[in-house]
Amino acid sequence: MDNIEKILIVADDSPISVKAVHYGYALARQLRAKVALLSVENTLENPPDTLVPYEVPYAESRFEHLENFLSAMERDYADGIETEKFVEEGNIKETVLRVADKWKAQVIVAGTHARKGLGRLILGSTSEDILHGSKIPMFIVPLDKD
Q1: How far is the first Cα of the chain from the last one, in angstroms, to the nearest whole number?
Q2: Distance from C-alpha of 58 to C-alpha of 62, rounded to nearest angstrom
Q3: N or C: which end of the chain has fewer CB within 10 A?
């Protein structure tokens, strides 16, 4: 196996995503890998009113909000790690797998809180869907059950 040089971290602005970003950057730091932060806008599976916003500047659109969120994640966690950011629109699973392939990611990091149904956030049971469709390893970060 080659050295892991590229880690794709999937994140929306939910608390579990912030935790996944934290772990993803910790992994990247240990492996001396580059990071890509990806947020996927899919209003059917990710209704804006279900999100718990991370503190980011006011945004005119959902895309701008996600861009601001990813910039805040890079600012708070990158600590010098080379980072690219992607905000894409589409089906979450298909978009994550497409970006991972295009960017040549060697690991995907995502969070899960095991929610189901239309109200689920980006990384509920979607993480399992991505895992089953992925040809590369995944690092799945669970939400604390406090």
Answers
A1: 37
A2: 10
A3: C
* pTM, rounded to two decimals: 0.82
**Amino acid 54: pLDDT:** 52
pLDDT tens for 9-29 read: 999 888 889 999 999 999 999
DSSP class per residue in the chain: -PPP-EEEEE--SSHHHHHHHHHHHHHHHHHT-EEEEEEEE-TTTS-GGG----S----SSHHHHHHHHHHHHHHHHTTT--EEEEEEES-HHHHHHHHHHHHT-SEEEEEE----STT--TTSTHHHHHHHH-SS-EEEEEPP--
Q: Is 80 left (phi over 0), alpha (psi -120 to 50) or beta?
A: left
Reported as a single tens digit per residue, the pLDDT across 39-90 is: 998 755 544 444 444 555 555 688 888 999 999 999 999 999 999 999 999 9
